[in-house]
Amino acid sequence: MKKIFSILVILLFLQNCASLKEPKTKGTLNEKNLTTLNGQYSNHANSGGGSHVNKLSDVFDRNDNMFKSRIDEKYASKNVSVYMKVISEKTLNIIFKDNNQIILDKNIKVKLMKDGFLYINENKLKIIGLPLISGGWNVQKSRLTINSEGKMYVESNYFFCNGILIVMSDWKDFNYELTFEKK
Q1: E strand or H helix at 140, and its extent?
Q2: What is the DSSP secondary structure assignment for residue 74, as one 8-state letter?
Q3: Which of the chain's termini has less CB crowding within 10 Å, N or C?
Q4: How far apart are CA 177 and CA 148, in angstroms?
Q5: 155 CB-contact burial (10 Å; exposed 0-12 / middle 13-18 / buried 19+)
Q6: Among candidates 131, 113, 125, 15, which has minimal Cα distance to 63?
Q7: For position 63, what pLDDT does the model report?
C-alpha cells in the first residue's frame, strides 16, 4: 500500500496538472505599472467563470487555502468587495470586506512574469481523503493582468482527480477566463 501511494504521489508531482497555456489576451503588467492593480473590485465577475471558479474568492481560495469556512456561505453576499494592493513584485495584499466589515486580510505570494501577467504562487495543490482510494486531489493555477479595456483579467486552470478504490476515477481539466471591473 505504501508503495502504491508513493508512486501516486511521485506521478502527481511529475504531472503538469492544470498547466497554463499561452495567454489568450496580451498581458500589460510590468515593474512600472504594477500598481494599476491596486483598488477595489467586486467579488463577482463581470464576465466569464464557471462551476468551480466564478469569483475572486474562488481564485484566491484555491491557490492559497486561506479561508477557513465554506466559500459559499461566507462570500455569497453580493456586497463583498475585494481590495487589492501590490506590496512588491512578489507580494499582493488582499482584503475581503462585506458591508465594510473585514472578512479577510492576507498577503499572498505572486510573481510578475515577462508575459505581462502576475502569477499566484501560493499553495496550488489540495488533497482530499486518500487519493484514488477514497478521495482525490485538486490543482489550480491562476494569473491576472489588466486587459486593454482597463479591467482585471484572470485566467485560471482547475484540474481534479477523484476515485474510489482505484477502479473508478474521474479526471477533469477546466479553463476559466474572468474579468472584474474596478469600482
Answers
A1: strand 134-146
A2: H
A3: N
A4: 15
A5: buried
A6: 125
A7: 44
Cα gap 69→74, rounded to integer Å: 7
Yes or no: say if 27 and 115 are a contact pair by the CB < 8 Å rule: yes
Partners of 102 in the β-ladder: 97
Q: Left (φ > 0), alpha (ψ -120 to 50) or beta: where does 65 sit? A: left
CB-count burial class (<10 Å; 0-12, 13-18, 19+) for 158: buried
- Mean pLDDT of all residues belonging to the chain: 78
Evaluate if residue 45 carries a pLDDT over 60.
Answer: yes
User: Partners of 162 in the beta sheet?
Assistant: 136, 170
In this prediction, what percent of the chain has a pLDDT beyond 90?
Answer: 23
What is the DSSP annotation of 79-106?
Answer: TEEEEEEEEETTEEEEEEEETTEEEEEE
96: cell is 475581503
Contacts of 146 (CB under 8 A, 6+ apart): 28, 29, 33, 36, 37, 152, 153
> Measured between alpha carbons, how far is 147 from 153 in angstroms, rounded to an integer?
6
Q: pLDDT of 59-111, one tens digit each?
A: 876 544 444 444 456 666 678 889 999 999 899 999 999 888 898 899 999 99
d(C-alpha 114, C-alpha 160), whole Å: 28
